[in-house]
Amino acid sequence: MSNRIPIEGATALVTGAGSGIGAATALALAARGATVLCADLDAASAEKAAAACEEAGAPRAAAHAVDVADRAAMDDLAARVHAEHGAVGILVNNAGVGMSGRFTDMSAEDWAWIRGVNLDGVVHGCAAFGPAMLDAGRGQVVNLSSGLGYTPSSTEPAYVTTKAAVLALSRSLRADWAGHGVGVTAVCPGVINTPIIDHTRFLGDQADPKVRKRTTRLFRRGHKPELVADAIVKAVERDRPVVPVGFEAWAGWWLHRYLPLRAQQAMARLRP
Length: 272
Hints:
Layout: E1 11-15, H1 20-31, E2 35-40, H2 43-56, E3 61-65, H3 71-85, E4 90-93, E5 99-100, H4 108-118, H5 120-136, E6 139-144, H6 157-177, E7 182-189, E8 201-202, H7 209-220, H8 225-238, E9 242-245, H9 247-258, H10 261-268
Parallel strand pairs: 1-2, 1-4, 2-3, 4-6, 5-8, 6-7, 7-9
């Protein structure tokens, strides 16, 4: 069954739509004629994104404040959306947070926090909206993984783990859902200039002001979020399985496929 869905006239829901990649994606979908539902933990940011979507050409846009880490809240959101719009045609599970620090510097709360947003948030989005898409027999799910989802790092074990899990989940769901008309894409951005760095937890030796400043400077020089938004739009239009974004993400993708494991492990020990 073909799952390709025209963006014009579709209903799209984007999590983490208040800023960065989520905001850019919401605007890109709006400009192509989609009804865009902007979901974000910050209600004011969601409202601002929805207003921008209407200005960009969306026939309709709405804001929803929701914590993607809360399964009940996501289920409630899905119930409201389905009652008003029916099954969404495009679901972008974008909400995410960052963490830099070695495994032994992380508390149980740190792990629960990053897993709750980066991995559980994607699971909750797929579980809340996926069944209706399957019943409708069409649609595209886009899950935000990362170039670090296939590039291990000694100083980012939690972030790498959550993003690798999103990549694995996406590929598994794709194998299952494609036969029911629903495509699933994992998008894996490299270094992108977004506000995520402002909300990243720096732990242990990574909390050194010099390290934090160097990391922040690196991200400020990263690709624009619109580059990822454009890749997401193309992924929806072409039903792509895995989409690295940025030269560093593509380099990591090919290295993880062809570089010997011993060399990959040596690279993982390098400080970013």
